[in-house]
Every structure is written in structure tokens, then in C-alpha cells.
User: Which sequence fits this backbone?
């Protein structure tokens, strides 16, 4: 099944892509790789208040996972904008996750599964990827999570 068909089957409608927050581009294609800049948990172009703050303090692990999934949806929106269709994605190569973490919080990998699980849901086995997940003390706009990605593309 194509990635676009799978999104429809999952009931996921990709949002319009927001403008970058600073001096960078949302995605860069180099040969058969597409690198997507980190995306936050934006809903309808705005930071969803349910996904602001530190995981392990203001947010539970489940809320963090939901934020990571939403950020990954925004990654897919940027990839579609750059490629014209997610059907051009051959494989998810790598995800990077940054988790706005409360002091002592160490379940960042569980939070990042929200993004990783989405990639497998959309791309099947080709959605399995290498990954880096780190806890950070702050993110822009008080995002709880930011997700970046690298895709192999046709």
C-alpha cells in the first residue's frame, strides 16, 4: 500500500506547512536523501497548548508520545511539500528526537516512540529507522518535543 493511501486509511490529514521559525529551510534534498528540519507539535499552525512544557513535569509520558506523533505528522507534511507525494519516500533512514525534559526524567526513548510508531504505521517495514533521542532543558516556543528526519527518496 502506498504511503499516501496508508495516511488516508489511518485518517491522518497532513497540515499545511508552517514557515521556518528562523534562518533555515524546512527541507533539503541532496541526491536521494531528503533531510527535514526539526518540527514541533504544531496543530493548525500554532503550538498546541497540550504539548507545551517539560515531559516528566507538566506532561506525562503519554502526552509526550502524543506530542512526538504530532511533530512527526508535521515532518511528513514538510516531506510531502518538498517531494509532492510521500509515495516518493523509499525508506525512513533516521529520526532525531529532542525531548524537553524535567530534571531527572529519563524515559525520552518511550516518548520518541510516538514518532517512530507513526513512521512504521505509514511506511511499513520501510518506516523502521535509526534513531537518536536526547533530553534537553528547553526547546523553542516551549515545545515539549521536536522531531527531525532523513528519508531515502526516489
Assistant:
Amino acid at each position: 500500500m502506498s504511503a499516501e493511501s496508508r495516511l488516508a486509511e489511518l485518517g491522518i490529514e497532513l497540515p499545511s506547512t508552517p514557515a521556518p521559525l528562523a534562518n533555515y529551510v524546512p527541507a533539503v534534498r541532496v541526491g536521494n536523501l531528503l533531510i527535514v528540519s526539526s518540527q514541533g507539535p504544531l496543530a493548525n499552525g500554532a503550538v498546541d497548548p497540550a504539548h507545551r512544557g517539560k515531559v516528566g513535569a507538566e506532561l506525562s509520558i503519554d502526552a509526550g508520545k502524543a506530542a512526538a506523533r504530532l511533530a512527526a505528522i508535521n515532518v511528513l507534511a514538510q516531506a510531502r511539500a518538498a517531494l509532492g507525494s510521500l509515495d516518493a519516500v523509499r525508506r525512513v533512514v533516521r529520526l532525531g528526537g529532542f525531548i524537553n525534559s524535567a530534571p531527572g526524567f529519563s524515559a525520552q526513548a518511550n516518548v520518541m516512540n510516538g514518532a517512530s510508531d507513526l513512521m512504521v504505521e505509514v511506511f511499513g517495514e520501510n518506516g523502521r529507522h535509526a534513531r537518536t533521542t536526547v533530553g534537553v532543558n528547553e526547546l523553542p516556543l516551549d515545545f515539549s518535543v521536536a522531531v527531525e528526519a532523513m528519508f531515502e527518496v526516489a
Notes: The two ends are 16 Å apart (CA to CA).
